[in-house]
Design goal:
The complex is a heterodimer of chains A (225) and B (67). With 225 residues, chain A is mainly alpha-helical. Chain A has helices spanning 2-22, 32-46, 52-69, 75-85, 103-119, 126-143, 147-174, 181-196, 205-222; one strand at residues 123-125. Chain A starts with a helix and ends with a helix. Chains A and B meet through helix 2, helix 3, helix 5, strand 1 and helix 6 of A and strand 1 and helix 1 of B. Strand 1 of chain A pairs parallel with strand 1 of chain B, so a sheet runs across the interface.
Chain lengths: 225, 67
């Protein structure tokens, strides 16, 4: 498993060596479709009981996609950025036991993506994926740092996944043209709870309640099963 | 929780079917800002996806369908 993370974050390092600069490039911008690929591959390599052959194949396809992604634009400056990031020289941490903390927020995030995809075929929800990318950035930074740093970054990644899950459900709810009186009351209750929980840790019970309430409302509004 | 073991993480039992993770052809991007001031994307351009990238994306979708 350790090797899959090493391979995954090596490709992520290549990706951000361009992405960090492309964000300032009016012609390029951020490539959300590539981030979507990172999400799908992350799902494959973190899913239990998936054959190593599938994981190998996913990493290989990701590498091919990044190879292609890196060819467009000012490649020399991206190479400089890659050297500055120094991923090839850095040692990644050996202990990945803190990954366990990711399970619940990652599972919630996957569920939110799944619910969204049931409603909107052929769409990528940018805001939600950006939160996933923010989570990946923390995992990437932690992975090439110390174990203590990794633990801190895993917690921050959890926060972004939680926000991403909320964003998915918010956009599903937003897409409903009209709400019943009861649904409006429910929304007021959730929004109030949300304001009251600002600043709390992501594993706080209130945060869980908010996500569950948004999920229930979104599913109720669109009859998602 | 500290550990020096190198490979103790075996993965998660996700409750979500993997085929539900696939978002179709990925040809449209829905931009949404909920106005809460969260970090966002400054770019206004459409992201490109050439034939090679589409091919690798399909390969990954096929893996998702099969697991």
């Amino acid at each position: 498993m350790q090797q899959y993370f090493a391979d995954f974050f090596t490709q992520y390092c290549r990706f951000i060596s361009k992405d960090l600069l492309a964000t300032f490039d009016k012609r390029l911008g951020r490539n959300t479709k590539v981030i979507n690929t990172f999400y799908k591959v992350f799902f494959i390599i973190t899913k239990k009981d998936v054959d190593n052959s599938h994981k190998d194949q996913a990493i290989r396809a990701l590498t091919e996609q990044i190879d292609s992604y890196m060819t467009d634009g000012d490649t020399s400056i991206y190479a400089e950025m890659y050297d500055a990031l120094g991923c090839t020289n850095k040692q990644h941490i050996n202990g990945i036991s803190y990954f366990g903390h990711l399970f619940r927020p990652l599972n919630d995030f996957n569920e939110a993506v799944s619910d969204y995809n049931k409603l909107y075929e052929n769409h990528i929800f940018k805001q939600g994926l950006i939160e996933f990318n923010n989570a990946l950035s923390h995992l990437f930074a932690g992975f090439f740092a110390s174990e203590t740093n990794f633990e801190k970054n895993v917690k921050k990644a959890c926060t972004h996944l939680h926000r991403g899950s909320l964003d998915y459900y918010k956009t599903i709810i937003k897409d409903k043209e009209s709400l019943t009186h009861q649904q409006k009351q429910e929304l007021i209750k959730i929004r109030d709870l949300e304001i009251q929980s600002i600043g709390l840790e992501v594993n706080n019970t209130n945060k869980d309640e908010i996500l569950i309430a948004y999920r229930d409302l979104a599913r109720d509004l669109h009859k998602i099963q | 929780m500290k550990s020096n073991k190198t490979d103790e993480f075996e993965g998660f039992d996700f409750t979500t079917p993997s085929e539900n993770i696939i978002s179709g052809k990925s040809d449209k991007i829905l931009v949404y800002d909920d106005g809460t001031g969260l970090t966002g994307d400054f770019s206004e351009v459409d992201t490109y996806f050439n034939d090679e990238m589409i091919k690798s994306d399909k390969e990954i979708d096929n893996i998702l369908r099969s697991i």
